[in-house]
Description:
Elements: H1 4-8, H2 43-51, H3 71-82, H4 86-102, H5 110-119, H6 124-132, H7 146-156, H8 178-189, H9 210-226, E1 234-246, E2 249-256, E3 259-264, E4 270-273, E5 276-277, E6 288-295, E7 303-310, E8 317-325, E9 328-335, E10 352-366, E11 369-370, E12 381-386, E13 392-398, E14 402-412, E15 420-424, E16 430-434, E17 450-456, E18 459-463, E19 474-482, E20 492-497, E21 503-515, E22 521-522, H10 527-530, E23 534-539, E24 545-550, E25 556-568, E26 577-586, E27 596-601, E28 610-617, E29 623-633, E30 664-666, E31 671-673, E32 678-680
Helix pairs in contact: 2-9, 3-5, 3-7, 3-9, 4-5, 7-8
Amino acid sequence: MKSNNLKRAAALGLAALMLAPSATFAKEFKDVKKKNNKYSWAYDAIDKLSDNNIISGHPDGEFKPGEPVSLEELLQLIKQILRPSDQEIKTAKEKYSKIAKEKGVNSWAEDAICLALHRGYLDENSLKKASERGFFKISGREYPSRGDIAIFFARALQLSPNGNTNLLKHNDKDKMSDTLKGYLSSLVDAKIFTSTGSDGNFEGERSITRAETAIITKASFDYAEKNKIEAKTEKLKGTVILSSKLNNVNVVIIETKGSKYSFDIDSNTKYKLKDKDIKLEDIKAGQEVEIEYVKAKSGEREGTAKTITVTNAMLDMVGYVNSKGNNQITLRYRDNSDSINFRTTSKISTSDTKTFDLDKNVKIKAYGKDLKLEDIAVDDLVEFKTNSDNKITEMTVFPKEAYVKGQIISIENTNKDKASIKLKLSDGKTYEFYITNETKDLDRFSFRDEINIYVKYKVAMGLASNNEKDSNLMGEVIGYSSSESSFDYRNRYVVIKSSDGYQKTYYLANRFDIKDYNGARKTQVTENYLRGKNVLLSLNSYGEVDTITIVDSNLKFSAMFQVVSREDVGFNNNRFYKIGLRVIQSDNARLNPGKTLYFQTGQKLELFEVLSLDGYLNYDGEIIADSNNRSLGNPREYLDSASGTTRKNDFKDYKYFLTNNRPTYNNRTNQYNGGVGQYWIIL
């Protein structure tokens, strides 16, 4: 008996894959038989879908059930399962047709790709990754994994991402990402996937076959027939053109980006102004509104409005950066008020998202410095004001991560709810940064000390590294995932804890290596293996990790140094200095107190300056990587040194070493006379 739902689905217009390249549809296939055949398990599904012209075979009469299926084909199948309206396809293409073409999507699959982006089971970043990996190529095509496909089907069918993982009985369950486990559990519960796989394994990393796809597609059609899958509500912002009766029907018409959209109004429609209920009569031409609506299946209207919210010109707002364009910035924002708690590094709640034009005289500042639009990063916190044209006139930026140098004006730490540090910065103004339970290393500083701190938004996290660009690229692994997902790069990451206690997440490149310290490449590395190991990270130009190097923990060090010599070795306008660093105290025997190392740097370190840094040595005792590099002060004289290596927890404040037993210094040669050996390193 043929499914009515299947009858309603049109044949897929795919290019020589799930559909036959000829006009003849094969109902019986030479390579798929009901009994005594390798693919007999898929016969009923293939037969049903073929009967309803959903899939077909090749001109030679074969179905080729073992061949892989492309991303475009699968999304086309999902489109047929969802049966979107013509109006929804039109809207989806208006939004996403341009990016689909830019990423090389084949024209026959454009509708399916745009719908996937529109409904959210495919995002733009995943589309970009798919294009980069060759998913849309005709020759040399890459194919999506079974894990990817499971996630697509689950999201398209609006299944829960947090299914009951106890339903999964696969032998390779531990190899699945948490995201895949959640969605696959929901698919198993919906009887679209089995709980064990065909042979006890899910095999999430391999491509999916035509036979497997037939099974999943048939089950998805059955599920969609029993469970109404509504098109999600949409939101659209624009300027009101008309709010009145049109042909005896209440309508609101808005204009956005030069296009007009009409919405039906019914008795269930709600009207809002800053979370206050208003009436239809309060909706006036010229107002800026946001309309939440359910898409119409057909007709002249865009849909039926559920909520119409009036958005006024804003005077004082706060939010986060979503993206930037040509003299434009897209922000997630809300009203700024005293009720907002900026003492947490977690996200403040936002209510709206909008793209703002910048006024031609816009002023953008961060910690007293003038900025340009290109200096602002995604997820930076901004406080901003707009004029009557809704253009941003002022913007104060609080970066997600930044390094701020200034003089301490005050430290308040007696009341945890009011704890803060105030610094006078280079512009001569005073800025306040909050001290929280996450703040480290600021307790030993006092009024008028010069200090360089690491901040997240408005919160002081602790002392900053002088090596800002490459700080914290080494540390102990506390988290790792190399998820099989081909699309979501955020499922592939390594989390390290640096020596100063900060945790930082780095995303992995498409192709990355894990190596031993001796250069040997390691394969099939698990999180359990990496967790707790000390590593060095190498980043590519996109800031993604392309190499993880496991280092010998015996080569790790924490030490205090003093600048004992400085020689200008630059030429023309290039300033370079040969710096001599004497070890004052150290927790590694390869850096015995008294030892002097030399290096070249563009950083103008002062004679006598005391530095603290953590890092890793090579087997020759040379520093190859460092973090938590910070200045502790300048005593203006030479320090004594510790009598030997010790634990970091037993380190003394540098002032402890200001004794009468000082090293000698040769003013004629501008060299420190003392120390154990001399070593040259170029940093």
